[in-house]
Amino acid sequence: MSEAALFDYLPDPALMIFSGGQTGRVNMAARDLAALHGLKADLVTMFGKDTAALVARARREDVAVGFLPLRTGKDGAPIFRLAVRRISTTERYTVLLADMSREFAWREQLAARNRALTVLNDNAAALSSSIDIDTLAAGIYEQTSRIMDTVNFYIALHDAEAGTLSFPIYVEKLERKLGVPTRPFGTGLTEHVILSRRPLLLNGDVGGQARALGLQPQGRLARTWLGAPMIADGVAFGLIAIQDHEGTSHYDEHDLEVLTLIAGQAAAAVRNVRLLSQARRASQEISETQAGLLETERLRGVTETVGALNHEINNPLSAIAGNAQLLLRDPESLPDGVAEKVGRILEATRRIQAVTGKMANLIHATSKPYPGDGTILDVSRSLAREENDASPEPLADAGGDAATDEAAEPPPGESSAA
Fold this sequence. Notes:
alpha+beta, 7-stranded antiparallel β-sheet, 5-stranded antiparallel β-sheet, 46% helix, rod-shaped
């Protein structure tokens, strides 16, 4: 078989060109490739003017390799590797074509997966530092937006006890909606993903596909809907969803896989935030309980002290008041000025009795500063009743019936304290 025949029957497309880039000969595979896409079997026609740079390099270095798309005039044109080699010492060159479209697709997919992995690693680091649900939800949205179309995005959390769904973040047309109300747990796509604990991808007639599953979609129907459950300790308590209402986006299985991974990370983060919140509430309750116990113990100590003081003060106070009343029964028999002094003594005993009566009504122990570095009990701020209500009845009426020594000296252990 001649060289010309051998060239013509090469399995891969090949062309022979001159140093100026003009095509001299084309093999059968190259003619078939050009005919398949409605092109003339010519190097420049098939791959455009960018081939000139390859030919120029081959003239200098005898060989040149480049990657160019076939000029089909359509999106997704196949990518070819062009290997240009000089033929001996002539000014002619062979151009071997190899379809690299599948390899380029693999490379793009690998690059997309690498980007997703990078985002997932960043996502894990970002979410681990969140300490509240709102901050966490904003972080999930921000990280997801780096690798997916999140024009319409939301996170839903299920409260099984209340039978409701809440939305810590809801984004529509890139605008975050604030104050999205909680709604009852129903039979929509969100509920289906949470109950089934499986991610769901719907493209096209989302409403029809949802109804085929026995569901009743909530709100405005999307043309593409993708949701992944958030699961922790075997329980699905929420989901992350992205959707497209205009038909400009089309999600695929790779998107489903990525969102599922993000939802898994988010579930762990939400669980940690909830545990932290529970721990904080428990700590606050313990602190409040301890403070209450300390206040109760303090009050008990104060009231026991007050009770003892009432007993020790009111017993001699009753004797003083009784004897003062006896003296005032016959003020004319007293030396000049003595009756007035005895009256002041009796008034002072009543004032002391009023203070001890107030102290018997303490409900908490409130202190106030005292000259120096000390504090004393603030009686007026520690009472259960108003000052007038707390005033006890007087010990005895100075102008009443005659008092006896028995009245002036109460039995042992008796006190006017409440």
